[in-house]
Design goal:
This protein has helices at 2-26, 48-70, 76-87, 98-102, 108-129, 132-136, 139-154, 165-175, 179-188, 195-223, 227-258, 261-264, 268-287, 292-302, 309-335, 345-371, 377-387, 391-403, 409-433, 436-446, 470-476, 481-494, 496-508, 527-538. By secondary structure, it is mainly α. It folds into two domains: 53-95 and 108-434, Na+/H+ antiporter like fold (Up-down Bundle); 468-538, no CATH class. The protein is globular. Keywords: Ion transport, Membrane, Signal, Transmembrane, Transmembrane helix, Transport. Residues 1-19 form the signal peptide. The chain crosses the membrane at residues 48-66, 78-103, 109-128, 165-186, 198-222, 228-248, 269-287, 323-341, 347-369, 381-400, 412-434. It is a multi-pass membrane protein.
């Protein structure tokens, strides 16, 4: 009897102990740090704590580094990549315990997830910025600059045929131009409305579209185990692109018209539908063997630009994407960069050679393309320098190559250094090649008002100052500059009021009545300021506001 009681009590105590242990495993300490919680220890059941620490460090350091770069008009991507390099094995990673505590291998999964979501949204915005009608309106010089630019750039990488996919990938990495960074550099240098700006934007669009198609081909060839598989992937990609361009685009336009989103801007439901299309397209292109970013990019191309829809949609998505998600991705690029691998003179020779080849090939191609279309040498060199900008897109390509094991970590590091150098050099070089005083002189010379030495040919009595408000618009609106410029040009060409002003101008020029008309998109609070600015610039005696 006694033995029986003992066994029963022991069994009960064992069960209670087991239940208590299970409860402790299931329920973490609720008092947090007051119960000894270490927030830097990664907990798979609650990864948000470590992720907040990582994201806060990245965003704060990026903003700190970007502040001095704004003084010299450098793009933010430089600060984002340098942030990653500082936090990676090149600098902070040398401090014992730093990487294991802040960026442990197990704790990088949520960080990479957020970074890749940001990458998908960013590529959607890149596609959204591209107005194919704007490209077609300048097709002749666009084809010349973009074709020669990519041809010269791809040539150095494609010589050894035995490298196969590696050679194709290197050609794409060298040939591609960072279209989003290009837009922001043109905006900061106030070149959006110049001939150089228009040519660079349209050539950048063509370069980007072709570059992403070639990149999709590279990924397809890498992921495909056999030649027939690569063929199926390519056919599926082409078929899906046509499906998006016709069936999905038509249905999407029907929804936009019924919800009046083209006139009034995207409603909440339309924004949700667009995000759904982006994620679904990214999913599909990923599962068929092409990278997910290609699907997001195609949805961006599909979105209409009528009525300012693309601009208004960008306003709703861009700020969060560029402030939180995008810095995480490019910081991840820096974290994957290990400058310690550049440990010999031979390797640094490769760095210099890759940088020179990447810069000069783009410079030569862009310059010759512009020169063949009648531009002066200095303008042509400026276009070549702008087309050599790498930036964001280059780093995306390199990360895909690293993930697909096309590039080793050392080769990846070499190309990251090249991307940083070429991006950093773009704005100062363009400022030196194409300063404002030279732009003014060239404009007067092309209008036959001065000779090349600056002497006036015909004294002007009164000049109608018809400078467009597009530059003001680009500086006022917190959205993509190229979208604003291209859509204002389209609207101005179709607007009946502007056409009426044009007719009036033609009829009254002989009577010394100078008339100019513009279509401008400015925030409501800036209407009066925009009108006053234009009146002063044009020395207007009368302003008609339709």
């Amino acid at each position: 009897m006694t033995a029986m009681v003992t066994v029963t009590v022991t069994t009960i105590m064992s069960a209670v102990t087991t239940a208590a242990s299970a409860t402790a495993a299931r329920a973490p300490a609720q008092a947090g740090v007051f119960e000894g919680l270490n927030p830097t220890i990664y907990n798979p059941a609650d990864p948000i704590i470590l992720f907040i620490i990582q994201a806060t460090i990245v965003i704060a350091l990026t903003r700190l580094l970007y502040w001095p770069l704004t003084k010299i008009r450098e793009p933010r991507v430089i600060a984002e990549v340098i942030t990653g390099i500082i936090l990676g094995p090149s600098v902070m990673g040398r401090i014992p315990g730093f990487t294991a505590t802040i960026f442990p291998p197990a704790g990088m999964a949520p960080f990479r997830l957020a970074a890749n979501i940001g990458l998908i949204l960013f590529l959607f915005l890149v596609g959204l910025e591209i107005n194919l009608n704007y490209l077609l309106s300048n097709w002749r010089i666009t084809i010349s600059v973009a074709t020669l630019d990519m041809a010269f750039a791809s040539e150095p990488g494609t010589a050894p045929v035995s490298f196969g996919v590696f050679a194709l990938f290197i050609g794409v990495a060298i040939a591609i131009t960072a279209f989003p960074v290009l837009c922001r550099i043109l905006r900061s240098l106030k070149l959006l409305n110049t001939t150089v700006g228009v040519i660079v934007l349209t050539s950048g669009i063509a370069n980007d579209v072709v570059g992403w198609i070639l990149l999709a081909l590279c990924v397809t060839l890498v992921n495909a185990g056999a030649g027939i598989t690569a063929l199926w992937v390519l056919l599926a990609t082409v078929g899906y692109s046509l499906f998006l361009a016709y069936a999905v685009h038509s249905a999407f336009m029907t929804v936009l018209r019924r919800t009046h989103s083209l006139e009034n801007g995207p409603a909440e439901g339309v924004v949700a539908l667009t995000i759904f299309l982006v994620l679904a397209s990214a999913f599909f292109t990923s599962v068929i063997g092409v990278h997910s970013i290609f699907g997001a990019f195609m949805v961006g191309l599909m979105c209409p630009h009528e009525g300012g829809f693309a601009i208004r949609l960008t306003v709703k998505i861009e700020d969060l994407t560029s402030t939180l998600f995008v810095p995480l991705f490019f910081a991840l690029s820096g974290i994957n960069t290990n400058l310690a691998l550049l440990d010999s003179g031979v390797v640094w020779g490769y760095v210099i050679a890759v940088t020179v080849v990447a810069f000069m090939s783009k410079m030569i191609g862009g310059t010759l393309g512009a020169r063949f279309n009648g531009m002066v040498w200095r303008e042509s060199f400026t276009i070549g320098a702008l087309m050599s900008c790498k930036g964001l897109v280059e780093l995306i390509v390199l990360n895909i190559g690293l993930q697909a094991k096309i590039l080793s970590t050392r080769t990846f590091t070499i190309f990251v250094v090249m991307a940083l150098v070429t991006t950093f050099a773009t704005a100062p070089l363009v400022s030196w090649l194409y300063p404002p005083w030279y732009q003014q002189k060239l404009d007067l010379w092309k209008k036959s008002k001065i000779d090349w030495d600056g002497n006036p040919i015909v004294p002007s009595e009164r000049e109608a100052q018809e400078k467009d408000l597009q530059e003001d618009v680009a500086n006022r609106l917190p959205v993509s500059s190229v979208m604003t410029v291209s859509e204002i040009e389209e609207d101005a060409g179709q607007d009946p009021i502007v056409k009426a002003f044009g007719t009036s101008t033609a009829n009254n020029t002989a009577r010394d009545v100078f008339v100019s008309g513009q279509v401008a998109v400015v925030p409501e609070g800036s209407f009066a300021d925009a009108l006053a600015t234009q009146a002063v610039r044009g020395s207007s005696d009368l302003i008609l506001v339709p």
